[in-house]
Amino acid sequence: MHSHQQDVFETSPPDQSSHVKAGTSHAVLVNGVATQTVGFSDRGLHYGDGLFETLALEAGQPLCWEQHMARLADGCQRLGLLPPSLALLREESLRVSAGLETGVLKLIVTRGSGGRGYRPPADAQPVRIVMAYPWPSYPAENSEVGVRVRICHTRLGRNPALAGIKHLNRLEQVLARNEWDDPSIAEGLMLDEAGQVLEGTMSNLFVVSRERLFTASLETAGVAGVMRRIIMESAPALGYRVTECTLSPEDLSTADELFLCNSLIGIWPVRELAGMPFKVGPVAGRLRRVLVEQGRIAGYTALENRCEG
Q: In angstroms, how far is CA 257 from the centroid of its own chain?
């Protein structure tokens, strides 16, 4: 990051304190320094040239840290980014989350500053941005009674080179999420150009049929969510076979259950999709209880009480 005054970007109104304030609207470290500015020449700002991870915080500790770091490392390798020190990221994450009982940890790694043009500079130095936010006010009943979901008009483009990784280019999700403002609709499902169902704007989708789990193959588009991976690894021990496949809207209409997942919401059953009612069945609830007990989903009483408030 350049130190020149004309080459900084304010991420929010300047903080009058030189210290990170945990538990306020957000606390930020940029390359380990308490600041709210990044260089205007940063390639993450110019081109979305970078990656991010979003983790749940419970008692000030990030959940599923190893899985998130594995995905970050895979993304760095695929984009040709110099991976950050995981020990350093861990230390900075604990600094910004200090004092937060529950919250959200967001990690951003960009390729760093460079001149104009798409070609990355050979000597680019990656930039780390570590932030902590308060827990979002999701209704606590979403996990029990289920949520209403719509089908988005915005389609996901096919791009195998970027499929699966959580890169900073999220305009498809931005456009899709801007399609509705009804607070009673919790999520929108996104299809690809061929009309196959891939994922939600912020979540992955599982279809339950005869106690088997099906989820979309993400070889050409979509984000391979950490919670999706955890569910795929945990379900067989509970007697549920998991299959990655292509999913059509018709496949969803005949499902026994549908549920959404990500690292913050955990597991949300779907009770209505595009006006069609669905049963909130036992599989989603059983998986959620097991993962809460294992400390992989932030779902304890204190957290749910906060959501209700």
A: 23
Could you tell me which residues come within 8 angstroms of residue 101 by beta carbon, excluding any fewer than 6 positions away? 58, 59, 60, 302
* Consecutive H or E run containing 203: none
Please state the pTM of the whole predicted model: 0.88
Catalytic residue among 35, 53, 166, 215: 166
pLDDT score recorded for residue 26: 63
The residue annotated as part of the active site, out of 35, 54, 102, 215, is 54
The pLDDT tens digits for 19-77 are: 334 334 469 999 999 998 899 999 999 999 999 999 999 988 999 999 999 999 999 99
Q: State the pairing for strand pair 127-133/147-151.
A: unpaired
Cα 69 to chain centroid, rounded: 13
Confirm if 121 and 115 have CB atoms less than 8 A apart.
yes
| 166 is known as an active-site residue | yes
Half-sphere exposure (Cβ direction) of 250: Cα atoms closer than 13 Å: 1
Which domains does the chain carry?
5-133 (3.30.470.10), 142-308 (3.20.10.10)
Catalytic status, residue 199: yes
Cβ proximity of 33 and 39 under 8 Å: no
Task: Identify the active-site residue in 53, 92, 187, 199.
Answer: 199
